[in-house]
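Section 5: illustrative case.
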């Protein structure tokens, strides 16, 4: 909490003013003492989100989600933490003390940590390295189930787990920005450093009928004229909730530090409905 507050350039007094408490309360909170209600208010003010806890818009909702995923009753959590059932129930409603919360987190979500602040780049590494992040198999499973088998990966990589009937590989002299695409479904997770060129290419190849359907996984960058003049009218766009854990060339999983969207061309309403059942997020309404 202290680190996040300092990184936000706020004094204890300024944070206290923002959430309507006195400075002493913030001091105590940063020492691990206080109420969960104040903690949640401070987290909201600092845009401090926890990850590794479960889904929900507040820490208490996340706790509830985490417990139900583990299929534990309130009594079981109480027994594991040495707290009363009432205290555990109260934490899940945003009540209770930080000390009790810490005990519950240790049992329910030992990997809980602060979600990294959003940034618009992958971070360390040269461009080739940053562009080599592979779609994880669990993300692809939802794509295959909702949209069918992938015919073409036009920006493939031999290290990627994406299953496609045909792959265009730079390592074999291919170039997905030059070669014609073809087939039913093209799945495109492009080098993000050149995202716009790939979205244009996907659109052109779909427009001329070389591919029937395109599904692209890209960062939510919507400032281009191309996005507003063309894609917004013709693509169906799914805004993903949470961050996707991509695979690095070293085989490590790494959450994107930025938000992602799935841009689809030529998908059917039935396919989109199925995808929304599987993935967390929302289709942008087209009016
Ligand atoms: C973000 S990775 C995605 C790989 C794979 N499509 C996946 O989803 O796991 C993008 C890949 O595109 C490849 N690439 C870059 N420029 C390309 C081009 N002109 N034609 C085909 N592939 C290219 C890079 O080698 C890189 O591995």
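Designed sequence:
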């Amino acid at each position: 909490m202290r680190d996040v507050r300092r990184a936000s350039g706020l004094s204890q007094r300024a944070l206290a003013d923002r959430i309507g408490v006195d400075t002493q309360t913030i001091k105590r909170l940063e020492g691990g003492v206080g109420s969960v209600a104040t903690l949640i208010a401070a987290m909201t003010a600092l845009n401090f989100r926890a990850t590794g806890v479960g889904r929900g818009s507040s820490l208490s909702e996340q706790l509830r989600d985490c417990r139900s995923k583990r299929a534990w009753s309130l009594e079981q959590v109480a027994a594991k933490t040495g707290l009363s059932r009432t205290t555990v129930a109260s934490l899940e409603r945003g009540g209770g003390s930080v000390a009790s919360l810490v005990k519950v987190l240790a049992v329910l979500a030992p990997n809980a940590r602060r979600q990294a602040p959003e940034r618009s780049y992958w971070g360390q590494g040269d461009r080739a390295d940053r562009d080599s992040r592979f779609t994880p198999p669990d993300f692809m499973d939802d794509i295959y189930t909702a949209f069918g088998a992938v015919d073409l990966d036009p920006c493939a990589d031999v290290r990627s787990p994406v299953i496609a009937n045909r792959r265009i590989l730079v390592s074999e002299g291919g170039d997905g920005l030059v070669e014609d695409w073809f087939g039913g479904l093209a799945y495109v997770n492009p080098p993000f450093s050149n995202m716009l060129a790939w979205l244009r290419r996907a659109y052109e190849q779909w427009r001329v009928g070389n591919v029937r359907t395109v599904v692209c996984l890209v960062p939510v960058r919507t400032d281009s004229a191309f996005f507003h003049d063309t894609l917004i009218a013709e693509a169906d766009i799914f805004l993903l909730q949470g961050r996707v854990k991509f695979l690095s060339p070293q085989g490590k999983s790494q959450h994107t530090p930025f938000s992602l969207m799935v841009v689809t061309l030529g998908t059917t309403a039935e396919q989109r409905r199925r995808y929304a059942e599987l993935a967390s997020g929302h289709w942008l309404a087209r009016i």
